[in-house]
């Protein structure tokens, strides 16, 4: 499946080239491009998984990427509100703080 | 399946009436009914949070509820495939097993 | 239920004797016996940690042990209701199901 | 149940008003006020859930709130020591670091 | 047990063919075959990740696979004992229970 | 088992002396010294558990300790690449960032 012809390098290329290649070619090159789910749906699902797992370092990138993929700011806030119930208030609280910063930097 | 627009008793009423009331009135009565996010989007987000957190007991209900809310079976499978990368293969593997059963019971 | 003040063998002795010894002597023999926190407080904290981490297999023992240590059934139910907010509804939902069974078996 | 008459605004009001309202009115306005569990017990349980889930951003507030609710500094340290066993040494290690800072800022 | 050097269909092929292909070709076909880490090391690391995340459904397969890859039974028991400290006693307790069963079925 | 004669003080001695003693005497004094698993194996397992649980504060110490115990830099990178699949891409991504810093500080 994987066509290991080089596309572009990603953020892990300097220190973890194999992981970088898997990220660029398999994750972004193949999975995100599959038509079975829209990019907007993939972003909703990805942001939800990051918030639920408290993956604080990866959230800023995916909050911006979600907006590129058509999720509005109001929808991101509502997603966090919804997840307060399904991942707990602390996860939602941290997500609000990160989102506030991401929105401020990009307005 | 329960019609959650009715503010009737839910599954915790026998033993945890306060939690049941919060579930029926706040979570299903208010949050799920808010217009800022469609029910289909809420289901995508909820199922993603459950898979990412390995909440195996709550997944069957929400896989069925997601289908009521307009998520197709193919989309659910694709969501799990996507989450293999964002929550790890073990979480996806367990989600496949549960989904297989839920689909079989309802076909 | 096991009387943990006795430094006898515990449930891991058959297959994991070193872990068993650490459990019986350090965890139950020393830590649970320290006076800086009452056993009732330790049980509240332990049950909370188990629910928040979805440690479903260890919960039945500690729900019973908590009652031995002075936590009432109503307090356990209220603890779960409180944790719905701090660990998410799915964790609380599973805790209710396990607690219902534990209470039924011991009434 | 929820009386959606405004009480006071909380920390999410600027960007997530619905979550803020749920926090102020349902979580703090209702749940924390219920008599079925004392505020001291609720704080023990909340701090335990935060440590066990590695919710590092929410821990400072709840360490201070726990002291307001009657948990002593020695009891907080003992709670962390106990949770080293039930949530793992890394969670306890991080909790010690945060607690050290919180105590230093408030002495 | 499946011989994963063959790029045949795996356990998800019936319902999630894309995930199955990624599993067989990328995860088992490429990653597990990379020389930068021995299979024994990969098994230690995989079993540790499963125990730490309480991935109870995936543990039996990887306990057996670890033995195929040269991890002894005594080493698996010691790994669990070690992880009691790094992932908490409840995770270790569940791992002991699953390991006991896996060993019994294969002796 | 525990010989509570003082060895050396560790990082928690100032504020959590009992936890410090357990850490120095039981965890490092006994468990890490057991022969049933080499220190290199223990480090692989510990680093895997930390990455899988997103224990970001404890990772720098154990990345250095792993190198002392014979795990090479290339093996640490490969371990992270492997865990991208078993703990999810976000956990691996954060581990790469921390590892990059640790390697830079010690070269």
Written description of the protein model:
Six copies of one chain form a homohexamer. Chain A has 107 residues and is mainly alpha-helical. Chain A has a domain of 67 residues: AhpD-like (Up-down Bundle). In chain A, 64% of the residues lie in helices and 0% in strands. Chain A contains five helices and no strands. The longest helix of chain A is centred in the C-terminal third of the chain and has 17 residues. The N and C termini of chain A lie far apart (40 Å). The relative contact order of chain A is 0.11. The N terminus of chain A is likely disordered. Chains A and B meet through helix 2 and helix 4 of A and helix 2 and helix 4 of B. Chains A, B, C, D, E, F: This is Carboxymuconolactone decarboxylase-like domain-containing protein.
Layout: helices, strands, pairs:
The structure is a homohexamer of 107-residue chains.
Chain A: H1 17-28, H2 39-52, H3 59-68, H4 73-87, H5 89-105
InterPro entries (chains A, B, C, D, E, F): 4CMD/NDH-1_regulator, AhpD-like, CMD-like
Organism (chains A, B, C, D, E, F): Dyella flagellata
Domain Carboxymuconolactone decarboxylase-like (chains A, B, C, D, E, F): 17-100
């Amino acid at each position: 499946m994987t066509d290991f012809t080089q596309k572009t390098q990603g953020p892990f290329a300097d220190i973890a080239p194999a992981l970088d290649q898997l990220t660029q070619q398999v994750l972004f090159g193949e999975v995100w491009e599959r038509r079975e789910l829209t990019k907007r749906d993939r972003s909703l699902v990805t942001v939800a998984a990051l918030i639920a797992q408290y993956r604080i370092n990866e959230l800023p990138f995916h909050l911006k990427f979600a907006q590129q993929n058509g999720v509005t700011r109001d929808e991101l806030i509502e997603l966090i509100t919804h997840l307060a119930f399904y991942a707990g208030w602390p996860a939602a609280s941290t997500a609000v703080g990160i989102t506030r910063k991401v929105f401020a930097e990009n307005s």
